[in-house]
């Protein structure tokens, strides 16, 4: 899936249930893949609404939870049911209101109250187990329920927005009609797009066409 810039440990504090990968380069989000790596799991959740609904089925929700590192890859999430989809979309809406409110200087009181309420619950409890090659890998003590998973995402949002360093790195993509928000961990903090290959490339193509049109004129 598409990935964001390399995550910096100083700016990315996650709850024990959340594990982030740190790919070097963002790629174009695809509606057929479960994850866009925005640098934080709560921001990854926001990206599941663009360019189309990515949490449209239980199977896609399970895939996103694993791809985002919310649960280890082989976690069955056997209790998942349609109500989980509504719960994750509702949290997505609240986190979106809260993050955009912070960027705009608005106080999204209702969203803050809801995210805080969800963050009260215990996230999935991790444990270390031996893989076949003898290395330790992350597993969970139990197959988590919806409340625990929502709590992990809500806690990540709380931690992000209460960390001044991380909060200062929040960026909106400058691409035309792109609503994605990401954590800018690039050198110099000059990243402009969610994805250099998608929005960035479209901007470069548009710029080239404008120059070509001026030259012809």
UniProtKB/TrEMBL annotation:
What InterPro entries does this protein map onto?
Answer: ABATE (IPR010852), ABATE_dom_sf (IPR023286), Znf_CGNR (IPR021005)
Compositional bias of kind Low complexity: 1-17
List residues of the Zinc finger CGNR domain: 169-211
- Which residues does the annotated region (Disordered) include? 1-33
Q: What is this protein called?
A: ABATE domain-containing protein
Species assigned in the record: Streptomyces himalayensis subsp. himalayensis
